[in-house]
Amino acid sequence: MEHEDGTTTTSAQDFVDALAEPVVVFDRHLDVVAANRLAGALSASLTVGTNLARFTFLNPWVEDSVDGWEAEAHRTAAMLRDSLDEHDADDRFQELLGELMARSTTFATEWAGGAVRPTRRGESAFENPLVGRIDLRWEQLRRLEDPEHVLVVWTAADEESAARLTTLRGLLDEGATTA
After folding, report:
1. Tens of pLDDT, residue by residue, the chain (179 residues)
2. Nearest 5°: CA angle at 163, between 162 and 165?
C-alpha cells in the first residue's frame, strides 16, 4: 500500500474512498496513510498524515474533550507496542517513542506499564462540531500479504449515531457540489 518514499498508492486511497462508512489505513508507526472524506470529517485524527499516537498523547485538547480518553490512550499505546513487537524498531520508531516519552507523562506511564495486546474491535465516541456526538463501532482488518498496514472501518453503534453520520455525509456531499 505504501511506496518506499512513504506515499500511499493510489489503489489504497481509491479503495477507502469507495466505501460509504468512515475508513482509514494506518502504518506500523500509526501514521494515517489513507482515509476517506467521511473519516476526516468525523475527526481530525483520521486524516492522511496524522500520527494517531502523537494526536492522542500530545494534543492537549484531546485529553480534555474525548469521552473515554483513558481507554483510547491505553489502546493507542497497546497498538504501538504491538506494532513494535511485530516489526523491527527502525529509526522512525525510535524517534516517535523518544518524543512521546519525553513529552507525555501519560504515554511514559502507559509504555512502562507494558500495555497489553490491543483489541481489534470496539466502540469509540466522537464529538463532532457539526453534528454532535457519534458513537461508532470499529474493527481493525489486516491483509495477510501486507502486515505493515491496518484498515479500520467504523459503523454507527445506534440509530441516533447513524442519523448523525448520515447528516455528516450529506454535509460533505453538499460541500462537494458547491465547491
Report:
1. 444 544 445 677 888 888 889 999 999 999 999 999 999 999 888 999 999 999 999 987 666 556 667 878 888 888 888 888 777 778 898 999 999 999 999 899 988 887 567 778 989 888 888 999 999 999 999 877 888 889 999 999 999 999 999 999 999 988 766 65
2. 65
Exposed/middle/buried for residue 131 (C-beta within 10 Å: 0-12, 13-18, 19+): buried
Backbone angles phi, psi at 151, to 5 degrees: -95, 130
Rounded to 5 degrees, what angle do the CA atoms 169, 170, 171 make? 90
> According to DSSP H, which parts of 87-158 are helical?
91-103, 105-112
pTM score of the predicted model: 0.85
Nearest by Cα to 51 from 35, 71, 69? 35
Cα–Cα distance measured from residue 69 to residue 123, given in angstroms and rounded to the nearest whole number:
12
Who's near 167: CB < 8 A, 6+ residues apart?
130, 131
> Rounded to an integer, what distance in angstroms lies between the CA atom of residue 104 and that of residue 124?
22
How would you label 39-67 residue by residue, b for 16+ Cβ within 10 Å and e otherwise? bbbbbebbbbebbbbbbbbbeeebbeebe
